[in-house]
Amino acid sequence: MSAAIARPRRARLRVEASLSQVVAALLVAAFLLAFLLVPVGRVILTAFLDPAGGFTLVHFADFFRTSLFLESFWNSLYVAGLSVVFASVLAVPLAVILARYRFPGRALIATLGVLPLVMPPFVGAVAMQLIFGRNGTVNLLLMDWFDLRLDLMEGLNGVIFVQSLHYFPFILMNLAASLSNIDVAMEEAGQNLGARGLTLLRTIVLPLSLPGYLAGASLVFVKVFDDLATPLLLNVTNMLAPQAYLRVTSVGLADPMGYVISVILIAVSLAAMVGSGLLLRGRDYATAQRGGGGLSQRRMTGQGKLLAWLFVVPVLFLVLAPHLGILLLSLATIWSFSPLPDAFTLAHYGTVLRETPQFLTNTLLFCGIAALIDVVLGVVIAWLVHRTKLPGRALLDLAAMSALAVPGLVLGIGILRTYFDTRLPGGDSLATWWGMLIIVLAIRRLPYALRGATAALRQVHRSLEEAAENVGAGKAATLARITVPLMAGGLAAAFVTSFATAAVELSATLVLVTRDVDAPLSYGIYIYMQSAAGRGPGAALGVIAVLAVALCTWAAHAVAERERSRRARTSEAQEAA
Amino acid sequence: MLSPVLSRRAMLAAGGAAALLPGVARAQLEQRVVVVTSFSRDVTTPFATAFEKAHPGTKVEIQNRNTNAAVAFIRETRSSPPDLMWASAPDAFEVLKQGSLLAKPAIDTSGIPERIGGQPTNDPDGRYFGFAVSGYGIMYNTRYLRANRLPEPKEWADLTKPVYQGHVGISAPSRSGTTHLTVETILQGEGWAKGWAQLLEMAGNFAQVSDRSFGVPDAVNSGQYGLGIVIDFFGLSAKASGFPVEFVYPSVTTLVPANIAMIEGARNPNAAQAFIRFLLSPEGQQILLDPKVMRLPVRAETYARAPAGFPNPFTNPSLGARVSFDNDVSELRYELLNSLFDRVITFRLKELVEAWKAVRAAEAQLAKSSTAEGQRLLAEARAKLTTVPVTEAQAADRAIAGAFRAAKPDQPSAGRQAQFEEEWDRAAVAGYAEGKRLAEQAQRAR
């Protein structure tokens, strides 16, 4: 009886999954299991254990009975929601300008638009306070001139302000990639039917770019919801992530409540991710033509140009103010209660380059490899999820995305617990080996690459792959020679996001790094920023981090542009032939 | 008080005997020594460089973590621990010692007084050693005070004055071992009820409760707010680095040793012991006076070369002498105190500050035209804002304080931590709302 039922199911399996797909899925699953699910699971289990070691839900009941936690929960939702709104206000116009218009300074916007993500920990915080804080440059000048003080950095609104500035590039990059993938034919079809200007934007362009927007917006929501550094920097403790962090680090690793909050953070983040996926369900965003290389880029009218500049310049000033602050701090001798530093010096750069050059090379190496792993994993997972019928494929996606919701501290502790006793040949521990740091960085930033890869893949029409398969290419060959090249722009964006954010990762790094010589920049900055005399060198390292990431971003952008123009040229050549 | 001294003597004798054995004292140093520390690069680098110069062939590897994370790290890495733990907070060392995580190295401490400012310098059991002492006090930005026309503070009580409204910063004791000691010192020096009243009134002036120790000196250095409650070297080293700041010791302060200890099962025991000896030697002590370090040495002779105006506990007997710090009291209520401070101050700072503003306004009003009814209401409002929902006896009750410890099945506790915390939170919110209401009534009273 049971055999009779089992056989057709097996038969179905055989038909719908090829060996290479199964192997790929198993490899990815093993990686996620070993370095994400098991370590985090070990830590989270604490949330369900009573002191005697038995299973209990009393800690969850305590959570919902505690007014402070409930208040924190609503505060976190409020802040995350409003941050998405304000980030969209910044990002959507920039993305449209970037993708649709021939605008002098496009490359500048594209590069500068990524920089806010690269806010080195602590220096970024200090710089923001020095510029926007209650006695920062802006307020000191305002008080001098108008006797007026803006509480930009106070309370929940302060968190929303900083988060919107910090994370809007997620929307900008994903939306811009999405927009430039829309086939010009769609737009032309709309134009042929009489749509112009805003109508065209509203009915054709924006709906077609929805996958990119939602990918970015859900990232912003989840990041803000889980983010620790900004609320802590503003001393806002009545939010969920800071509460979890404060519990784990001050009450101790054995305290269950911190893990309960972590579980709730993970649950809400997953819900946001799944929710944004559901919004896209049942719609098709792919366009079959790949000839045009994206939206036609049009020339701006004089008035349009003026409007664009009027928007772009203040926004850029706003988002780059912290970086300006870091730069000033890195060049300052003493900067205390004054709009600008007392005097300038290059000595801090000397200190940093003389004492700790390894921080920079480590960062480039670690984060480069981690981002590469992310792009490969991201493509494979996106492909398995959207192009195969492998059973359980959605779980892979969910597992990889859940990394977004795992606080770095929890992952770090989990890795330490799971792998510390495993020895490398040299006698060092596997958990504190620099290779492990790369893996952890890759796990932490995988969701960014995966979102980017998924959005890029959604826009590649299946018919293109089917065409390749019809002429005899295998699945793998199709993926490698057709699908991935078509996704190049999106993948470049994915690489940059992963790389740039990995370069400033701190929470897991702090747990796992044991030796100065193996440490990345973010760790170095943290170390320097712990003392009064270290502010300058710390800021100098911050500037170096920002510059390194900006260079890499620019390079990736250039690669994507070249790819795009190459495609456009090829199609022109074909048309000519 | 006698027994710890005796056992310390016994330890010294044991240490001396061990030092005489040539095999132990002259052992070949290993190639590296791994140090976990909460100290910044500025502090560790000069020591590491000087040690490496004195012992060529041995490399000092610094691992930088905050104190709590360092304790957790040493616990998690039992099978292959770092060699040394080097940090300020003595209570962290006590925790490690209780967990049998500290070794008992052979260190000769002759020439270093047993007590400085009334406190024992070294662990009586010889598991950790004080290499410097630190006191707690008030650091302030002179430019900021001048711009805002604020007087310079001298005592903790000064910080309760209305003039400092919104100008004072502190870090949470749950987040900073040094602030924990400050708060505990105030509570022991002034008594539980009076101490809390002073802390809560001070909190009415807080601009922020920071989540890391260095957040406070950092904000004072950059002028985000004017005054901070900090450990001395934060103030002294910032001043030595050129920031426009000053530091004062209030009379209720205590000098607490900053410590170093060898971890049980250390892989490089000889190099580790050599590092401890170096730290305690006259050469090592001299490095404490480096402008970027600025800590009070434990050897009296080192002060001869200190800059003018440098505090000296050996010639200034009043420094730290007023409070005799009781470690047992502190240890028992350690976690409870952290949690209580967070409930009534850190997490409810907004409500508390609002309520105190109302009280200040009422005081100003009543100073102009005083009424008996107004004074009565004001006194009631003050009472609401200066009491905590826990008595000293309750804080010392093992059943209650035990609820805040890492749970042990065999220990009875009067409830779960979450229950107490919810109770305190409600009490604080209700009390501050009531206090604010009463103060507003007092202001209107005719």
How would you describe this structure to a colleague?
The complex is a heterodimer of chains A (577) and B (446). With 577 residues, chain A is mainly alpha-helical. Chain A has helices at residues 2-16, 19-44, 58-65, 67-100, 106-112, 123-132, 137-146, 155-181, 184-192, 197-208, 210-226, 229-233, 240-251, 256-280, 302-331, 347-355, 358-387, 393-402, 408-419, 434-458, 462-470, 475-486, 488-503, 507-512, 521-528, 535-576, and strands spanning 101-102, 298-299. Chain A has a single domain (18-346, 358-570), classed as MetI-like fold (Orthogonal Bundle), CATH 1.10.3720.10. Chain A contains 26 helices and two strands. In chain A, strands 1-2 form a two-stranded parallel sheet. Chain B is of the alpha/beta class and 446 residues long. Chain B has three domains: 2-132 and 256-305, D-Maltodextrin-Binding Protein, domain 2, CATH 3.40.190; 136-253, D-Maltodextrin-Binding Protein, domain 2 (3-Layer(aba) Sandwich), CATH 3.40.190; 333-446, no CATH class. In chain B, 48% of the residues lie in helices and 13% in strands. Chain B has helices spanning 2-20, 22-25, 41-54, 67-76, 90-98, 142-147, 177-190, 192-203, 215-222, 232-240, 269-280, 282-287, 327-332, 334-346, 349-368, 372-385, 392-396, 398-401, 417-444; strands at 32-37, 59-64, 84-87, 115-116, 119-120, 128-134, 136-141, 168-171, 206-210, 227-231, 245-248, 256-262, 296-297. In chain B, strand 4 and strand 5 (119-120) form a beta hairpin. The termini of chain B are far apart.
